């Protein structure tokens, strides 16, 4: 008799799940997407620690341009009209090729 009651409850539960299967699948999918969006938001808003940034910067050698070179480029720029035009165009639209 106990087995019969268990089978009856199982059948009624199976009918309930079959009736609302589409809705439950929809809710599970929405919950999954919401969780993914939340995790993406957490990862994109996370800032690196200052110690990590300093460690990365310490290993990077920064290029140094001496003042003589800068003066020479500015002198050459002032002497040639075409070069002045090129520099101006590059300043106005740096993504133009």
Briefly, what is this?
The chain has 97 residues and is an all-alpha fold. It has helices at 2-19, 21-44, 50-58, 67-79, 81-92. 78% of the residues lie in helices and 0% in strands.
What would your notes on this structure say?
The protein has helices at 2-19, 21-44, 50-58, 67-79, 81-92. By secondary structure, it is mainly alpha-helical. 78% of the residues lie in helices and 0% in strands. The radius of gyration is 34 Å and the shape is elongated.
Percent of residues in helices comes to: over 70%
Overall mean confidence score, pLDDT: 83
Low-confidence stretches: none
This entry's quaternary arrangement is single chain
Tell me about the largest β-sheet.
none
- What's the total number of strands? 0
Could you give the distance between the termini? 85 Å
Structural class by secondary-structure content: mainly alpha
Tag the structure with descriptive keywords.
mainly alpha; 78% helix; 97 residues
């Amino acid at each position: 008799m106990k087995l019969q009651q268990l089978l009856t409850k199982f059948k009624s539960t199976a009918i309930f799940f079959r009736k609302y299967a589409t809705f439950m699948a929809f809710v599970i999918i929405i919950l999954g997407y919401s969780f993914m969006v939340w995790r993406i938001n957490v990862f994109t808003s996370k800032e690196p620690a200052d110690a990590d940034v300093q460690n990365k910067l310490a290993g990077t050698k920064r290029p140094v341009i001496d003042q003589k070179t800068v003066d020479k480029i500015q002198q050459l720029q002032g002497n040639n009209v075409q070069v002045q035009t090129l520099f101006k165009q590059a300043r106005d639209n740096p993504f133009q090729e």
